[in-house]
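User: Hey, quick favor. My workstation is busy. Could you predict this chain's structure for me?
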Amino acid sequence: MVAESTELAKEQARVNQVIASIDAQIAQTKQDLADAHKETRAVEKNYGENASINRYEVDDIAESRAMIEQQRRLVNQAATTEDILKGQLATLRQLRDQPYFGRIDIQDEGDKNVETLYIGTASLMNADQSSFLVYDWRAPVSAIYYNGNLGPVTYQTPAGQRTTTLVKKRQFTIVHGKITHMFDTNEVVGDKLLQQALGEHDDRQMHNIVATIQREQNTIIRNTDSDLLLVQGVAGSGKTSAILQRIAYLLYHSRESLNADQIVLFSPNLLFSHYIADVLPSLGERNMRQVTLDGFLKHRFEGLNVQTLFDTYEQQSKIPQPINDFFNQPAIMNEVVKYRDRLQNGQAALRFMPIHFRDEIFFDAEHIAAIFDTLPTTLPLADRVVRLKNALIRETQRRAREEAKSEWVAADLDTLDLQQLHALYGRHTPDDFKDEQALQKHLARRWAKKQLRVVADAIYNNYFFDINEQYADFLAQCPRPTGISTEQWQEFVSQFNTQLEYHRLSFIHTAPLMLLRDLLTGGGQNRAMQYVFIDEMQDYSLAMLIYLRHAFPAAKFTILGDAEQALFHPLQLPEELLASLKDALQAQRPRLVTLRRAYRSTSEITDFARRLLPDGDQIIPFNRHGARPRLIKTANQQEARQELINELTRMLEKPQTVAVLTATADKAAAINQQLNHAGIDAHLMTSKDSQLPSTGVAVLPIYLAKGLEFDAVIADVSQKAIAPARATGIIYTMASRAMHELTLISIGQPARVITNSTNDQLLIE
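Assistant: No problem, here it is.
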């Protein structure tokens, strides 16, 4: 005990020394920032005073422009310096509270000296920049902390693999500069540290997990080779946290060639996007781009009301299952490619539509088709379309000169004020023209050209294609799925056409329609993105994943999720999923990482949840204990409502987050209304909400809770409330949202998936 106390005192003394160094660096950085701010203001003032061009002499114009460009660069440089100092100050302030969380002692072969390294969320050097006080957790040598047991270890460096001996691994919890826990371990991260971190109450924001990264999570984080990384993780296994640390690691590892704007994460919903928003900033990195699939589709189909993924869940699609299966698999995308080939070979006709200007037809469909027919048929279809667009642009420019003579141009010019007319002069002045007629001719051409930009924009955006009619033609020619009659298929195609009349589009059509449009126009691809991350992969069809592969052709894909939480598609084993994804996405270097240990919930909750699954015995509960989940059976709705109120009243005796989860949005809305009438301050969450309450009660359908966690969960598991085919995925997802406490309520019999084997894990009332 004396030795432990002495060692703790030594470590605390070092923490104090590091904090003293941080304080000194904070003071210096504040002074540097103040000086930089003064410099920025001075440069901006100088720029404002000199940002004018002498237009009287050609040489003066050139000299003035060069001076302005120089001033602009100085402004940018000063602002950049100020931003860098702000970032350094934020990092120092963060490190002051918790300078580091780990220590490793290593000894290289042939070296008698043992080197001691401390690991934290960011690098920190001493005042004279001669040595590291703290190593960034992403540094190559820091991998030893996560992967190595005591003894010989290897780690990857830019120069290749290195070998050393790990002599000691020590872990700390430091709060406000004080060591609260310290212990040596041979494990990656000791259970003591994990139990402490996981036992804390949820505060509605995900935190970085760099202090508790496990070996398998570290494998995900530091992978830079795979063009397809598939992470299959059970609920609460830390897969999303690991992915966010992976993004931070990639930005650190490839900082010369990668920035946050070249990474996009597809989140399941807006609530989840807000939930994870603080992780990267806490590591000193800017957030990557985030988008939901619904937001992505809304952008791609402007002007159409696209059925959301949530709508497909809520409305229990009436489309026959063979058609659903066909449109969810690669088969439909292959048929789109075959149809494009038929268009290329003239076996099917392109559908053009007129371009309008000032409520009149500017280019009619027949004229556009005639131009297209003159183009070489040996060219790929997309190249012919590019040439068609160029031809239409050139013709628009020619017609601008004709339109300049039109009465509408003269009428428009008469309505312009002096400022608008002055803008039309461009680089000219009235003195540059020999007479009034020449001036008016110049203004008319400029105005006509400006107004005709709407035609040029229409051409650029491919508005001369009737893509919806083209897709309807594709459906008419597409082979029928096995088990579907001619009448069923015709009705399906007819539904598409009818919905379009009301500017609606079913979700099932989105992937093939986007691919068809892109193949015809040669557009729709973003080659700037280097990494695409897709969370809750079980909600995505293979057809949609194929389209995303097409949309981001230069990107490496990281796809993560839990097949057991499938709400939309049948369960699939990880190895089967990797095989199908490898083929569908044409991956050359795929890798599967499976996470089976559940960290979020107590052992008691995890034991219940895994009994719901056919392969649940492969899930490993973490050794953190709590109360057994409860099942409360009620006879009617009134009794169930009272039990719900009783449970919430008890749970809210302490500040925590409680989720009331239902199978559908309508049920959530009804329960929320009942709770508010009973005097309980409950918050109904919808797909439009982006933030959960920090404490108290949130009522939401299960598909909005995916990826989230709560201190306590109350779930409606009535047999009548959940479709039998979806019961396993729904109840498993509900149960696995709870960190500390789980209560199930049923009106009448619970869903059949709750059987004798699960009842053994429940307190039944």
